[in-house]
C-alpha cells in the first residue's frame, strides 16, 4: 500500500529519507505529474509552508518549498512586486487539483511568456536548502545575487524534478511589477509569417516581454500577440512605433485594457486553448525559424507558439507515436517533452550518451540508493 508522507519539518523529511527502504515519489502540491510514473511512497513537501523572510527593498524573498505560489504572489502584490518569470499553472492543462508550490516551480524550472525578456525561473534562484538521498541537509547559495558560493549547485537543483534532492527552502529574487501593459494583435497569419513577425518584434529596440502565436485564439481564429510593459507613456510610444514596423505582416490593433491583457497572457501562459480537450500534449523547445516546419510534419497537430516560436505546445490525437515527434525535433537540434499522455515509455527527450553518463554520475553522488523519483526523467 502506498504511503502518503507529508513531513512538517526538515528534520522529519530527512528522517523519512534516511529510513526509506524503497522508492519515494517526491512532489510539491501534486499539480504537475509530468514524467514516467514513479512506483513508491508519496513524499510531499506541501506541509513545509510559509514565507520565512521578505525584504521588498532588497528584492529578495525566502520561503519554504511547500508554500503555495498564490500566497507568494499575494505577498508580492502588496509591495508592487512579482515573480518576473511568470510561472505557468498546469492544472487546467493536466486536469489536476491542489495548489502549485514554489518548490515545485523551481524543481521543474517552470517559466512563462516573460522568459524571453527576463530569463528562466532558475535565473531568479539565489539559494536552496534540500535533503539529498542520504537524508543529509545541504544549504547552498545566499539571499543576494552577488553571493556565488555554490552557484552551480543552486542552478542544478532547478529543473532536476526531485531526482537529486528534495528542496525544503529557497531564496529568490523578485522584481517590481509593471505600471502599464499594452498588446499588439494581428489576426489571420499563417504560422511561418507569424514567427517572422514575432522575430522582427523581438529584434527591435522596444523591449518586448511576450511574443506568441495561437493557431486558434479565443475567437477560434489565428491570433499573433506581442506584449510591451513599463510606464504608461513608454508603453504608448513603443506600441505606436513597433506597430509601424510590423504592419506589413497584417493589420495591427492595440489593446491597453489591463484586465484583458492579463487574461490574454494567462491564456497563453497556461496553454488555455488545450484545456478540456482530448489528446496528448507535447512541449517542444526549438529554434523559432524551425518551429512551423516541425509542426507541419505532425499529422493532426494544433500548436500554440510562445517565446517567439522557441517554445511550441502541440495538441495531437491521443496515442500519437513519440518517434515521429522526437525525430522531427531532434533533427533540428531541439527537444520534446510529453506533458500529457501515456508516459510509461518516457516523457523527456532521451539524453545523448555523454550527457546521460554525466547525469547518472550526479544522481549517484546525490542519491546513491536511487530512491528519489527513480526513472521519472528516464
Detailed description of the structure:
The protein is an alpha+beta fold. The protein has three domains: 173 residues, Uridine Diphospho-n-acetylenolpyruvylglucosamine Reductase, domain 3 (2-Layer Sandwich); 90 residues, Alpha-Beta Plaits (2-Layer Sandwich), CATH 3.30.70.260; 69 residues, 2-Layer Sandwich (Alpha-Beta Plaits). It is built from twelve helices and 18 strands. The strands form four sheets. An eight-stranded antiparallel β-sheet has the order 14-11-13-12-16-17-15-18, sandwiched between helices. A hairpin with a 4-residue loop joins strand 16 and strand 17. The radius of gyration is 21 Å and the shape is globular.
SSE arrangement:
Elements: E1 4-5, H1 10-19, E2 24-27, E3 41-44, E4 51-55, E5 60-64, H2 69-77, E6 81-82, H3 91-94, H4 102-107, H5 115-118, E7 125-131, E8 137-141, H6 151-157, E9 166-173, E10 175-176, E11 180-187, H7 191-202, E12 208-214, E13 223-230, H8 232-246, E14 253-255, H9 258-269, E15 280-285, H10 291-296, E16 302-306, E17 311-316, H11 322-330, E18 335-340, H12 353-366
Parallel strand pairs: 1-3, 2-3
Antiparallel strand pairs: 4-5, 5-9, 6-10, 7-8, 7-9, 11-13, 11-14, 12-13, 12-16, 15-17, 15-18, 16-17
Summarize the structure.
With 378 residues, the chain is α+β, with helices and mostly antiparallel strands.
How confident is the prediction overall: mean pLDDT?
94
Taking pLDDT < 50 over at least 5 consecutive residues as the criterion, the unreliable ranges are 144-151
Please provide the ordered H/E string of secondary-structure elements: EHEEEEHEHHHEEHEEEHEEHEHEHEEHEH
SS-based class: alpha+beta
CATH fold-level assignment of the largest domain = Uridine Diphospho-n-acetylenolpyruvylglucosamine Reductase, domain 3
Bulk shape: globular
Strand arrangement, largest sheet?
14-11-13-12-16-17-15-18
Number of strands: 18
Number of helices: 12
User: Percent helix among the residues?
Assistant: 25-40%
β-sheet strand percentage = 15-25%
Question: Span between N and C termini?
Answer: 24 Å
CATH architecture designation of the largest domain: 2-Layer Sandwich
Number of domains: 3
From the alpha-carbon coordinates, what is the Rg to the nearest angstrom? 21 Å
Amino acid at each position: 500500500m502506498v504511503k502518503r508522507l507529508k513531513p512538517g519539518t526538515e528534520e522529519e523529511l530527512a528522517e523519512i529519507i534516511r529510513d526509506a527502504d524503497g522508492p519515494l515519489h517526491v512532489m510539491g502540491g501534486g499539480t504537475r505529474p509530468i514524467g514516467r510514473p514513479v512506483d513508491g511512497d508519496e513524499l510531499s513537501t506541501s506541509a513545509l509552508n510559509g514565507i520565512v523572510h521578505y525584504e521588498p527593498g532588497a528584492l529578495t524573498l525566502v520561503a519554504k518549498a511547500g508554500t503555495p505560489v498564490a500566497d507568494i504572489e499575494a505577498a508580492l502584490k502588496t509591495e508592487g512586486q512579482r515573480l518576473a518569470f511568470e510561472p505557468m499553472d498546469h492544472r487546467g492543462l493536466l486536469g489536476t487539483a491542489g495548489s502549485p508550490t514554489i518548490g515545485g516551480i523551481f524543481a521543474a524550472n517552470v517559466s512563462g511568456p516573460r522568459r524571453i525578456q527576463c530569463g528562466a525561473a532558475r535565473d531568479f534562484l539565489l539559494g536552496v536548502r534540500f535533503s539529498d538521498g542520504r537524508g543529509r541537509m545541504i544549504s547552498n547559495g545566499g539571499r543576494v545575487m552577488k553571493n556565488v558560493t555554490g552557484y552551480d549547485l543552486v542552478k542544478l537543483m532547478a529543473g532536476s524534478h526531485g531526482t537529486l534532492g528534495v528542496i525544503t527552502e529557497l531564496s529568490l529574487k523578485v522584481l517590481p511589477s509593471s505600471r502599464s501593459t499594452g498588446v499588439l494583435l494581428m489576426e489571420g497569419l499563417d504560422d511561418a509569417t507569424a514567427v517572422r513577425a514575432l522575430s522582427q518584434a523581438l529584434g527591435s529596440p522596444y523591449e518586448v516581454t511576450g511574443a506568441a502565436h495561437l493557431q486558434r485564439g479565443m475567437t477560434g481564429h489565428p491570433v499573433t500577440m506581442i506584449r510591451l510593459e513599463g510606464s504608461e507613456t513608454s508603453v504608448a510610444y513603443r506600441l505606436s512605433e513597433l506597430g509601424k514596423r510590423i504592419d506589413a505582416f497584417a493589420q495591427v490593433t492595440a489593446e491597453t485594457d489591463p484586465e484583458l491583457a492579463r487574461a490574454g497572457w494567462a491564456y497563453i501562459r497556461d496553454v488555455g486553448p488545450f484545456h478540456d480537450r482530448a489528446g496528448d500534449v507535447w512541449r517542444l523547445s526549438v529554434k523559432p525559424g524551425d518551429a512551423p516546419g516541425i509542426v507541419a510534419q505532425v499529422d493532426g497537430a494544433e500548436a500554440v507558439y510562445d517565446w517567439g516560436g522557441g517554445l511550441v505546445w502541440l495538441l495531437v490525437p491521443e496515442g500519437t507515436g513519440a518517434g515521429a515527434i522526437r525525430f522531427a525535433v531532434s533533427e533540428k537540434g531541439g527537444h520534446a517533452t510529453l506533458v500529457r499522455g501515456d508516459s510509461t515509455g518516457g516523457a523527456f527527450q532521451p539524453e545523448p550518451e555523454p550527457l546521460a553518463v554525466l547525469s547518472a554520475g550526479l544522481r549517484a553522488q546525490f542519491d546513491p540508493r536511487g530512491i528519489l523519483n527513480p526513472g521519472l526523467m528516464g
